[in-house]
Structure formats: C-alpha cells, structure tokens
Design brief:
The structure holds 2 protein chains of 2 kinds.
Chain A (H helix, E strand, L loop, with lengths): L18 H5 L15 E7 L5 E7 L1 H5 L3 E6 L31 E2 L5 E7 L2 H8 L3 E6 L6 H4 L15 E9 L2 H7 L2 E9 L11 E6 L5 E5 L4 H12 L6 E4 L15 H13 L3 E4 L2 H7 L6 E9 L5 E11 L13 H5 L10 E9 L14 H19 L3 H8 L23 H12 L1 H12 L4 E10 L21 E7 L5 E5 L8 H13 L6 E4 L17 H28 L7 E3 L2 E3 L8 E2 H10 L12 E6 L8 E10 L6 E11 L6 H20 L31 E6 L16 H17 L14 H16 L1
Parallel strand pairs in A: 1-12, 10-11, 14-15, 18-19, 25-26
Antiparallel strand pairs in A: 1-5, 2-4, 2-6, 3-5, 7-15, 8-13, 9-10, 9-12, 13-14, 16-24, 17-18, 17-23, 20-21, 21-22, 24-25
Chain B lengths: L6 E4 L3 H10 L4 E4 L5 H6 L7 E4 L9 E3 L3 E5 L4 H6 L1 H6 L2 H6 L5 H6 L2 H7 L6 H7 L3 E6 L2 E6 H4 E3 L2 E2 L5 E9 L5 E9 L6 E12 L2 E10 L6 E2 L1 H7 L6 H13 L11 H20 L1
Parallel strand pairs in B: 1-3, 2-3
Antiparallel strand pairs in B: 4-5, 5-10, 6-7, 6-10, 8-9, 11-12, 12-13, 13-14
Helix pairs in contact in B: 10-11, 11-12
Classes of the chains: A alpha+beta, B alpha+beta.
Chain lengths: ~800, ~280
Amino acid sequence: MTISQGTRHVGQPLKRREDLKLLAGRGRYVDDLKLPGMLYMAILRSPHAHAKIDSIDLSLARAAPGVRLALSGSALEDRIGPIVPNWIIPGSKVPVRRVVATDRVRFVGESVALVVAESLAEAYDAIGLIEVEYDVLPAVTEEQDAVRGDAPQLHENVPGNITTFYKVKGGDYEKANREADQVVKLRVVNNRLIPTCMETRAIVAAPEPDGTLTVYIGSQVPHMHRRWIAETVRIPEHQLRVVAPDIGGGFGAKMHLYPEDLLCPYLARELNAPVKWWETRSESHQSTSHGRAHTEDLEIAFNNDGRILGLKVSTLGNVGAYLSNMATGGPTVNTVNFGTGTYKIENYEALSRVVVTNTVPVDAYRGYGRPEGAYIAERAIDAVARHLNLDQVEVRRRNFIQASDFPYRPYGSTGVMYDSGDYQALLDKALEAFDYEGRRGECEALRGNGIYRGIGVAAYTHMCGMAPSRRLAPGGFDRGGWESARVSIDSSGRATIYSGSMSQGQGHATSLAQIAADVLQIPLEDIEIVQGDTRQVQAGHGTFNSRSMAVGGSSVHVSSHRVITKAKTIAAGMLEVDEKDVSYSAGAFTVPGTDIAPLTFSKVARMAYVGHKLPDGVAPGLDETVFYDPTGMGAPSGVHMAYVEVDPETGIVDILDYVAVDDVGTLINPRLAAGQIHGGVVQGIAQALFEEVSYDSESGQLLTGSLLDYAVPRAEHVPNIRSSFQQTPSPTNPIGVKGIGESGSIAAPPCMVHAVLDALSPFGIKHLDMPLTPPRIWAAIRSVREGDAR
Amino acid sequence: MIPAAFDYVRASSLTQAIELLRDNPDGAKLVAGGHTLLPALKLRLAAPELLIDIRSVAEIKGIEIGETHVKIGALTTHSELSASEPLNNVFPIFRETARLLADPQVRNRGTIGGSLANADPAADWPAVVLALGAQLEIVGATGRRTVPAEDFFLDIFTTTLAPDEILASIQIPKPKTGTRYAYRKIRHPASGFAVVGVAIAVRMLDGVVDEASIGITGATNHAFVGKEAAEFLTGKALTRDNIDEAARMLSENTECLSDRYAPAEYRANLVRVELGRALLELSQ
C-alpha cells in the first residue's frame, strides 16, 4: 500500500517494511556474526539446586585441545563486579550475585566455571573435563515453602528468604470486611513460565584496533546494557559500543544483565580477541530469566448485589535465587498496585513479599506484574459472580470505573492513575461482537445434551511507559522514563531517524516512520529508522513496558515537529516573507493568500545544508534531537471474551472463539496493533492452558528442561482471534497513544480460566489453577462425580 | 548443546551397514531421519564413536503393493507414507496417523523404521503396525528373520533387535474387503507424542464384527495389542453397550504409566475413551 503525499500515515494498516528481509532469511542476528580469530565461550553450570562448592579442578580442561582459557568464579571475583539489580524497591535486602559462583551455587544452571576455546565444539568438550566437588544442601523451590520457618536459607543477608516487603493501602478494608454482606477467600497461583524466544540469547564482544570494545548482543535495551557492562566490567562507557542487530523475540527476557553479558566483554579484553557465546535451548531454560511464579491470597468483601466493597491481597512473588534486574519491582509495584483492575474497589489492602528460592531468577515477561495484577482483580470479580450466581457481565458492569471518573486514582492511590478510558463501551462492543446473549442461550441448551460450553470474560487496565523520570526515583528504579529521537534530514530532504527504542519484532521501522511521515509530510520510503547501535543512536532506554509508541513514538513526533519549525524559518527566508505567514502542507511551504509558488521540503533541506541563504542567526543543517520525558503514563484497557467447549471425558478444552476489544488510544498502525494483540493472546492462552515450569520440590531439578517437556503455543493450540479497537486518546502524550504490547498476555489468562470455569459450572467447580491441562480438568470433574456417587 | 566428536560413514548397502555395526559393537549408532538421535547427541545423552548413515541404502526404501502383502521399506518417511496413494488406497490409516504425527519438519525427515526401532513408548507407528498385524523383517550378520509386530516391542526403548541387526521392512498382509481403520490420539502439548494413541482395524460381516484388532501406544512401557477387547468384540454388533464393555475391558486390563503431565488414572481413562470413540467412529 502506498500513501499519496499529504495523506495521514498514522492509522493506516501498512505492511511491515522490515518483513521482506526477515522472511527471506536475510535478517542478521548475533549468531550470524563470524569475526576473524573469534573464540568461543562455554559455561559449566551447576547440576545442583543448592550446594557448597568444595573444589574445582580445571587442569584437564586447560590441557584440552584448542582451549585458551579456563576459569572458575574465584579468578573473576575481583575483576568483574557483582551483578546489581537496576530496580531496587527501597528497603530491599540485596543478595550478592557473583558473575560466576565462587563458594556456593543456588540454582540448577548457575554458572560455575567457563572455558574459552578456538572452536565451539572444543569449548563444550573442555567443560566436560572440569571436575567439581559439591557438598549438596537442602533446596527450596516453591514460594510458599521458602517462607516457612524451617526452610533452607539462601542468603545470609536475606532472613526468612524475603528480600522485600511492599504494602499498598487505600480506604479501610477492615471496615469494608465488617460491613459487607459476604466475604470470600481465594488462593490463586500464577504459574511460572519460560519466556521462550525463537532466538536464544547470544553475544559477541570484539576488541577494536583503537582500543575500544564493541559488544554485539540481542538486547532490548542497548544503551542500558552499555551502562551496565561499563560499570560492572569497569570499562569507560564512551569506549564501549553496544550493537543490537535483528532480534528474534525478547518478551522482557532480553532486557536484563546476565553473567554472559559481562564475561564476553571481559574475556575479549583479556584475550584480545573476539569472544562469542550463544545459548543452547536447554541452557536457556535454566539460565535465562523465568516469568510470573506468584501465589496470591485474596479476600473479597462484597454485597449481595455484587458490589465489591473491599479487597485484601497477600502476594508471594518467587524471584528465584538472586534478584535479577527488575525483580523487586515485579511482584510489588507492577502487581499489587493494579490489583483492583478496572473496578472501583475503594477499600484495598495489599502486602507483597518478594521471595528467594533455589530456582532460575524470575524477572520481566510480557506484562511483568500486570498480568498477575489483572488476574487478582479478575479472579476476584468472577468469584463474586459465581458465588452469588449472578451474571458475570452484570457484576462487572456494577463495579466498573465509569467513563466520567477519568482521570481516576484507584483506592485513592498516589502512585496509580488511569488517564482515560471507557470500560462500559468496551464491554458493549465485546458483547456485540461475541453475541453474548445468543451464546449464553446456546450454552444452557447444550448442557442438557452433555455438551459443556462456557463463556469467559476479562477486563483489564494497567499503566505503561514508565515515566516521568523524576517519579521513578522514589521507587528505586535506577533509570529514566524518557526516550530520545534524532530526526536528521539530508540535503535531498530525506530523513534518517535515530531512535532509542529497540524493536524485537514490534515493527518500529514501520510504525515510527508512520509517525514521522505525517509531521514531515514526506513519503515513507524517504524515511529510514536506525536503532540498536549506541555509536549511532545518541541515547535511549530501549523497548519494554509497552513504552515504544507512547514514549519513543512521541519523541519522534516532537523532534519531527522541531525539524519543520526550523525548516519553516529557512523557508520564510528563502521566500522573503514573515515566518508566521508560512504554512506547511502536502510537503511544501506556502504563503496562503499570495501567489508565491510553493517551496518544496527538499529545496529547503538543500538550502539548510548549502547554507547560502539562511536568515540571520539560523545555523545550517536540519537535524533535531529530542529527549522526550512524558508527563505521565497512559493506561490501555480492554475486554476479552472466550468461548470454549470442555470435553468432560478427556478434559480437553476446545477454543471455539476469542474476541478482543482493546483501547490503546490512537492507533498508529491497526495491522501491527492487531498483531501485538494476537501474539499476546497466544502467550496468554498458553499460560492458561498448558505452559508451566516444573521443579522437583525435593531436589530442585528443573523438570521442564527442554521443549519436549515445556509446552509453548503452536498454531494447532490457538483459535482465530477476532481483534478490534476502541480509541480513547491518552492525554499524557502528543500522539494520544497507549502501550499495546502487553495487553494480550494480561487479558487472556483470566479470560480463558473464566471460560473453562463457566463450562465446568454444572459440576460445581468454582476454581482451578493454571495451567488448565486436560488431566487437571479431568481430575476435577472426576472428583466431583465420585463425590456425587458416594 | 553441541555433540561430542564422532566418526561418520555413509553406508551404501545393508550388508555394509551390518558389517560396520558388527565391527563396532559398543560405539556405533545407525542414523536415518535423525530426529531422535540428533537431539540425544546434542544433549550428549548419546555419544557414539561412529554414526552409520543408512539413508543411501536403496534396498530398504519405498513402498511395494504386492499380491498378498504390502511392503514398506524402513527408510520410508512419515510424509511419504502420508502421500502414497497406492498405500492409502489399501490402508488409509497411514495418512490418518501421519497427519497426527509430530510436525511437517519431522514428518519430512523421520522414518517409520526409525520410529519402530527406537520404540518410544509414546510413538504412533507401533500402535498402527500392531493393529495391522504386521511382520517386521530384520536383517543381521547371520541372516534374515521375520518377527510379528506383537513380539517386536519388549520394553521402553527396547525391541528384539540385536545390536548388529537392522529393521529392513514392514510387511502387512493385505486386508479382507470391507476392513476399516481408525487412529485416534491425544497429543502431549509439548512433544506432540501420544499421551495415548489407539489404532484399530475392524471388519464387519452381516452386522457383526468378523475381525478386530487393536494397537495401543502411550499407555504403557511399550505399545501392545488389545487382544481381549478385540476377542470380546468378535461376533458382536458394534452397539454402544458392546463398545463400552470392550473399552472398559481394555482400560481395566492396562497398567498405565504415570508421569508429571498425566497420571496413570488419566491414561487409563483415555484408553477407555479413545477406544470407545474409535469403535464408535467405525460403527457409523
């Protein structure tokens, strides 16, 4: 699709400009890099969940063919600083995490030693020759077990295995509890997941002839990685260049600082040669951060009309053996702050405890905390409807925050503000698209024939694009909330845009160009987007937290406007008119009401660079950089509905329909937006129905160590997803957008669980924990049937 | 991960492959499609010194529709089994099964011989060859022998194959007219293997079962024949009651495997439900 000049690009369902390259196999990923003299690193990982390291013998490995270096943690202790989290909720106890374990290992997969060799095969052969003696200690893997008095303790400075206590309080829950007609308690588990990317992590660190170091890494946050590597490996930041080429998925897992990110740069400088490491799939399962892993206890106080008066939440967030990059923020700010969801629950009390266990560190995964928060609110409202035998839709209506309430601060919160939205309208659109009434009747009618169908509903809202910068300090978030964009016009009037955002599949080369094209009024083909190179891109925070359109897109918008402002000044000089009389439309500067011929943007660009006739005081060039710090955060919202049929004989869930209506403010590109919803919904369905990390609770062994055991969603598992949108512009940014990337994975899990529970309602089953696998559903039905038979 | 070092020989004949096996009694592995072996090599769960690639051994390739038997070369891929019109005209169960087996990439490389010889307790073809009463042709250093499918599978990943023997072909007696088939399977969400798979062949005559055979996979250590249930059905009409009774019989007589995903009771339930549904399918 081509857009004629002067037409708006924003809002057009353009195809992704980057797809041809990626689909034709011409993408360039870190592992495609093969540099002369490149060496390969392999890591020996702990086979034990918890053990003292008695001795490490590297002599055989060092003598093996091709081996250049073999090291254990003690040799690195003074050379590479400990790995420090980037988000530390005040009051948290931070355990020391060495880049390679020194005296003790705390999860299966923790690095124990490393080898650098001339070939990958030699490196792997050599790690097999390292002899380690362990003294195995008792391990704990589940959050509920870890907080018991007799639990094995992981870190001396983390008594009781709890790093962080975080409280939220609004209104008076105890009073609501006393006054409510009824109170229901519910424990919900948010299953641990592995953020599976098609491309596993990979890194190449290459010393340059001038003494600088280039690090190629599949990073969602290249500038953050530059800072972290510089600080931890003690390399002057300006001598470090971080390049993120094409990335095969991130989902949050590629925005953290991992041991390998530090080892490769350090070893490359030590050996004065490029050092590559890439992660095998099995390594990925036991060393890349996991997601979710919460248990929440809910207490819901409500009246017989379905109105919720109060909600009390107790969260245990399992963060694994050490505090990963953002670990203290997930189960706390990101989860319980959003525990009331789209509902007006004015009396709210939450306590979140961040718990260490002998498992892979847990960190951000698509939604990070918001899926867990929405699950709290949604399971609570659904429990009320089921308990009172009221219609699930009607109970939501009665509790919704109303359109007239925005901007709305739930439970009087100072930290949470929902900027805009209209949940009733979203619900109405979803009900209509879904044919709720018709299907409700269908469900009832079919139950008589032993066919168990169910309808699930879930509403969500959250906040994304963490900002403004000054508000992130009190929460202990050690980075800013801004994003930068440089719009550089060349002498032909074409644009190169350097953005601090970092696509991992989102399609920024298309969507950011659409934003710029509307302001610059030049064709999309005349705009190139540059991302992921700290030597080219001035600064940035990268892509996470659904921030790229709201923050990164706004910075492109603002800097494009600055370009036009300057171009207008230059044009006025060229036309010898007053600047305020010049207007810009359809790619040309005109003076309305006169017969002065339009002056094209490219002619003005040419003048900006030859500089022959510039107004006094105007510098040559047409090149603007903006560091855009939003005034607040946008709050996307949505209502999703699912229609399922459960086979009571096998427990298999057949998804008959899935409807998503989302309000993400102004749509930049409806096609890409639908793609984001589809992807997130697929991951959410997987969490609800089959994805789950399992550990052996005694030995701490990872039982889902490969894709043979760990189920990721495939085409056969998911239905046709019907996505549509409502557009309530966000007042927090100039283009009115809200984040979209996390919506699907937030809404789908409760939506699916509710649909299955609805189908199972004739059996009197009121709650099941995810994942709702066929054996689990079948067992629940059987226990009811056996109970009936007795 | 990365496999340990190994030697590699591409065998050009069955005789050569068998000689190589005989000369390397401890450290040789055959590779055909490689879809089980290569992952094991990468994880270093297997580290053979020698890989004998048999993909070029022409004599164990292809499908022959003979007078009395259908002969399927061990190297025939799942995709070839699915695509072959002559084969599926006789035994449509091959296409029905291949469609449910793994994914297109695996189907394009993996072979039926590899699947049978590997004897994964959750593989699909074992149930099918059992239901079809196949004979497995095995070639070794001391000659050729034929084993009924029923005697081939001994335990988890264990068959009657000696270390220097190769499964050469699958020979299936051509069916009597009117024999119908069904394969039903509950797929594991991660591996795609059968949590339980049921293959049946049923011939009706004058409204009653003239002949029935049942092959079950996924439920126990190795695929097996549901003899009792088949005998029960013989001479009876495929009524709801008879079907339920046969399914109950098979389920109750099966000591099922238990694992993290599916406990034994669930598998036993699937044996009952899936056999019942497969029979119901053929009763209509």
